[in-house]
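Escalation from tier 1.

The customer reports that the assembly of three entities below gives different structure tokens on two consecutive runs. Tier 1 could not reproduce it. I'm attaching the input and our single run for tier 2 to review.
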Amino acid sequence: MKKKGLKALNKRAKKLEERDVFGMEEVDVLTGQPIGCTTIFDTGWETNPRPTTPMGNCVSSARDFTTCSGPCWWPAQTPDNITNWPDFQNQCLAVERDWRNLNFVIKR
Amino acid sequence: MNRNLVKVLFYIVMFCCLVGPALPVMAKDYLYVPSSNNLHIVDCETDTVVKTIPFNDYIIGAIPSPDGKRFYMNSWHSIYEVDTQTNQIVDNHEFWSDLNRVTIMLGIAVSPDSNFLYMSASITKKKLNIPRLNVLPPQLVVYDVRKKQVVKNFEIPPNCTTVVSPPDDPDSVILLAQDVFKLNLKNGKLTKIVGVLNPEAGKPGLNVLAVWNNWSPGKNGMISIPSYSAEELFYMLIDKKGNLRMQKAEEMIFAYSSTISPDSKYLYAAMDEVYKIELKSGKTLAMDPLERGTCYNVTLTSDGKKLYVGPGGPDLSVYDTATMKRLGIIPLKSDGMIASLITK
Amino acid sequence: MNKFKVAENKTIRADGRDYIFLVADKAIFEMDTPTKTVLDELTPKGAISRQEIMDSLACESDEEREALFRGLLKRRAIVPANNGMFVSKKTKPHSQSIPLKTLILHLTDACNLNCRYCYHTEGDLKQGEKKVMGLEVACRAVDFLFNHAGPLEEVVLVFFGGEPLLNFKVIPAVVDYACQKATEKGKKINFAITTNGTLLSEEIIEFFQDKNIGVTVSMDGFDDVHDRYRRFADGTPTYEMMLPKIKRLLVRSNKKPAVARVTLVEDPGRVPQILDHLLGLGFVEVGFAPVTTGHPDYQLSNHDMDLLLGEFQNLSQKFLSAARERRFYGFSNIIDMLVSLHQGEVMNYPCGAGLGLFSIGPEGQLYLCQRFTGQDEFCMGDIFKGFNQEKLETFRNLAEISNKADCRHCWVRTICTGGCYHEACVREGNHLKPNLHYCEWIKQWSEIGLDTYCRLAAADPEYLEMLCMSRGHRSHVTVKET
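Tier 1 run:
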């Protein structure tokens, strides 16, 4: 395969190369979606601080979980609570306290 | 109990009743804090939860009526009506039926006369036996609370996360969507006020999380929404007449929501820290890192002396606004996002 | 419409190849010619649309063009145009506790030498107030270190002064106590000492070997250079009397090789000879530091600094030649620069002072670093009552790079970060200011560093990994033993 473009030399460059870019990078911080919410693939800034915007994510990321659930921001982690699991919040009312109750949900 | 004693007590009570009305009844501040499956009512004098109303639902938005008599909380499919005198849920207005779903997105407001609810909604219709959904474009729904019926709906731009009903302008609402619009409730006409995703020429695009729409206390109360361009912070300030102005912040801070003191001198904002800012100059006067972690909402008491930061997780952090020192933490039963002041 | 721009960068051409240093990310890439052409073409255009970028990519298919674009975006060679650097107060550092990694124990104010350029005799200490650290305070300092180390697996204890060997009597007990504490806490502790070398007895040398203590000797070169400024209080020269001790030390120290630290006052032309002389004695590494002084007579002139840069460049080339043959030329200055570039960590502060590194005064006070020991302004509390949180947080807030307006648009800001606080205090009058007096020098030195880095990365990337490991960094690359 023809090697093209840039070849990473230092550790930081290698880290950049390992990232998965899913088009998020192309989008400016201007989407009507707020800064401060974690992305689908990051747990929270405290484990993956960004050097530039968007900088602040919820601290801890648990504080974001309930409020940004459903179709808002955690679609891969929390089930849809509009149609299929309207009582999902019962599993875990306060994430910081009840996270051990979080479990898989299975649609039969 | 001794009969005579009863009589004496009766006369004392009568006497008190005669004297009573002459003494003014002091209005008290309460915080209504909905969270998953619970509505907490906090007495702002003692900073304790005096009542918790249980229900089984996930609450997205909430707003008090302008007359203070009702508190409305919406889930995706219904709006709970709470009577603030008795602190009980008196009704649950259902918006879903088999063939018609009005799914309430973020964004509910109450009309100035407290009779109508405005909600940003997605309407989906279905015909019996036809396996297809008809999804209408996003709507602003006007609902008559007394008559319990939708009286009109207007097509609005997508992504409306907050509806603001200015108390001094009953004929329009302000919609915070991908841009900020004013909607004329009489004819459905939309006017763009501020470009957010689609800025006007020469203006920067903005990032705005418009979710919290509590009026700050006092007769000059405003709604204050932090808005970020790539390089600067602005506060979007909406007054009771529905006028909007952008106030540039001197300093970049990160805040989900903000509110303004009754004398309009200070702005309080919070995300991972809580800030007290001099509104005119934009200077940060004080800051405290929130020990509990990220909080979404800030609410002031009507005299502006105490600030409640939260919820974020199951708690409210109480601050003294003069010193910006934390006075205490009020624990809640579950995670929440909104708190509203009702003075009654 | 989304717009993009070429990220702030510095390009290097070395040995017929092109390289790019992305400033904000401190990332270094090799560029092939087509990519260089594209970036050269796009840079002057400022903010441009995605389509414009695509149009400038000479590829055979749309798919290839897309992939190339994504590749540049991923590596942040191209960034969204609105991606302005926030000029914000980063509230994050002080709202979290930073673990303590290194404590420098100021064992004594006293010194048996009277080096003319010593920063400690430049009015910092009043005469007669020569304090000595007792064993009790030293052990409490050890406790403090472990109590504040948080999740760190390794901590460092440094013995300093004055001349720490004047208070050698506390050292063995402190070392034993610290080792015991380390075992209890399941952590590793490393020891180091900086000494003028005149008191290195056989017993002390054996002790250092036995307890694996890393030794730095302050030595300025061969006899006449060294004795110019480093003499006993009565004026007796020191080189001759310390030479046998140094030789003994260097013969014995094979577990943790000893290094020399040279303070340069004048005559940069002699630097290569000094380096070779000290390496010849047996020091495995030698580092050069221009003197930090407020006396104009002692400061290196601009002309001397230029000459010094030239010497450093020559020495870097010598280092590179040795590296190409997998040999090691112990010129610390270039090694530090190469490690910093290879690790690629973007720092918001120029060093660990006031973050994970503090010095402890003889009575247990906490200072920003060893150069500020004894100065109240830089006292951040003490080991008994703990940190003065407010003062410390104020410092951390103010010292952060975003407060150095002069640095904001400098391409070296992620390498230099404003420079040493003490140097700034002495030369600029304020420890929070960047070291503007040697800005240009640092920029040029950084260019030399980058050039050396790129050549070495092209020749032998494993060597860079080994260099980093020797400085204590972990590697995820399997380095073959030669």
